[in-house]
Write a structure and sequence with these properties.
The protein has 268 residues and is an alpha/beta fold. The chain is 41% helix and 12% strand. The chain has 10 helices and 7 strands. Strands 1, 2, 3, 4, 5, 6 and 7 form a 7-stranded parallel sheet that branches. Helix 3 runs parallel beside helix 4.
């Protein structure tokens, strides 16, 4: 079976619901966490915004609310999509990358952050943000919070800063696999959980056996699709991208080529 399709995503949601898990947006999970089995579905809309809308519609049809973090780049920032996702009852947050965009200039970065946050608040009363990994940049966007406070911008949380991942199980589909951590640059957390999964079906089976943790935060990007052609293209692209990322870690020449390719894509 093909994985990372809307069909497989639905099977994950259904398994969680049948096992008695409640769903919260990230904001609600931080502000008013509920007791017992709880799941947060987080989506970083790096690109393919229309795929995000399909995921949001699927969730809405299952009575589930989740959180969508949008970037400022045009591949993510599609006003019509953002508006429709808000209308479906989901939370919208800002997927910030301002320190990378300003080449590490903190004064310019925080000013740009405020501008972009204000923009997304035109669609939704944003109270949560999440850093974009900016894997080709030497700047970690989270460094903004070394000298600034989330509360100063009426924000209640940032997933990488506000969650204890020794208490909340974290699963990310980075690298088009649930065990693609070796491809991650900054999508990494410290955790005491030892569970490992490769496929969505493995997660579903664990849930059905009653062996899944009580609290979990899923990161599902917007590469999930039922389109045969898009699915195959994305798998080929991610395979190539993952291998380039691995080579770039130890080869400056490959790192420069990879950085140029990434920059060209986001400017296209």
């Amino acid at each position: 079976m093909r994985d990372f399709t809307l069909k497989s995503y639905k099977s994950l949601i259904v398994a969680l619901q049948e096992a008695g898990y409640a769903f919260q947006t990230f904001e609600d999970f931080i502000v008013s966490p509920i007791q017992g089995k709880t799941v947060v579905l987080r989506h970083d809309v790096d690109e393919l915004a229309w795929n995000a809308l399909k995921m949001a519609q699927l969730e809405h049809n299952r009575g589930v609310r989740s959180t969508y973090f949008f970037r400022i780049v045009k591949q993510s920032n599609v006003p019509e999509v953002i508006r429709q996702i808000v209308e479906l009852g989901h939370e919208v947050g800002y997927h910030y990358e301002d320190l990378s965009l300003t080449e590490g200039d903190e004064i310019k970065a925080i000013a740009l952050f405020e501008k972009h946050l204000a923009y997304f608040r035109e669609f939704y009363p944003v109270r949560s943000v999440c850093m974009h990994g900016s894997s080709t940049s030497k700047y970690d966007n989270r460094q903004l919070w070394k000298s600034h406070q989330l509360a100063d911008y009426a924000l209640v949380g940032e997933p990488y800063l506000s969650v204890d991942f020794n208490q909340v199980f974290y699963l990310t589909d980075t690298g088009y696999a649930w065990d693609g951590g070796k491809y991650a640059v900054r999508d990494i957390v410290e955790t005491g959980f030892e569970l490992r999964f490769h496929s969505t079906q493995e997660i579903v089976s664990c849930i059905q056996k009653g062996e899944f943790p009580e609290k979990a935060l899923f990161l599902a990007h917007t590469l999930w699709t039922d389109s045969f052609f898009q699915w195959n293209w994305l798998h080929f692209r991610e395979l190539l991208r993952n291998n380039l990322k691995l080579l770039a870690k130890n080869n400056k020449g490959v790192a420069r080529i990879y950085r140029k390719l990434v920059e060209s894509y986001w400017k296209s």
